[in-house]
Amino acid sequence: MSPTIMTAIGFTIIFAATALGSAMVWFFKGEISHKVNTVFLGFASGIMIAASVWSLILPAIEGAAAYGRLSFVPAAAGFLLGGLFLVLLDHVVPHIHKGTGDEEGPHIALKKSTKLFLAVTIHNIPEGLAVGFAFGMAASSGEYGAYVSALALALGMAIQNFPEGAAVALPMKTVTGSRRNAFLYGAGSGAVEPVSALLGYFLASSIQALQPWLLSFAAGAMIFVVAEDLIPDAHLEDHPHLGAWGVMLGFAVMMVLDVVFSF
Question: Rounded to whole angstroms, what are the CA distances from 182 to 20, 160, 165, 168?
């Protein structure tokens, strides 16, 4: 498979998986059960945590070898900057947290469905950036193995986007009263991923010195989403074993993908 085809597939599947997950709204009569929601969000959390470690932070540290003993600086600083980026988005984009119902950002007269949609959309940006940074780094190095590793990351993001898309669209059906609108909101929330992936690709492929910083930046942003949204929304306190096993399974799946695709 050529690097160009792998890049195109990587950018496409992260959105397609979200759309397919959102399509589950046509097959469920009611909302998703609390137990299934806990497993879905726990699984998504596990994949994002593993992807942040295996596919982003470790390569960022390796890529900063020129820093010598300070090779941890880009990884640590970029990681924290990724979290600050999400805090900034929370302050400038009007949205509602699905789990708590709390409103954040500017108080603008928008429909509840729109604010819920924006909440999911801004938290999908880090996933797209992560995939774009990985492929951009592969393009600058020209190594085939780097493209394969980037494709593994994209596949992992796609796997977790499927249940995430369902977890977004099904509650939207109750809010909007329409399966069609719920699907469009769910699928639309994933459209930001290939767009942010393109941005990440051009940044990482154009400015090689920033690559370690960019990779860890994406990792920090994803971990922030896990800690602020996915884990709280999973309500692990109600179903601790289901949630914990969801996280464990998601982590294991992403770890296996990264190892298998590295050979």
Answer: 13, 19, 10, 8
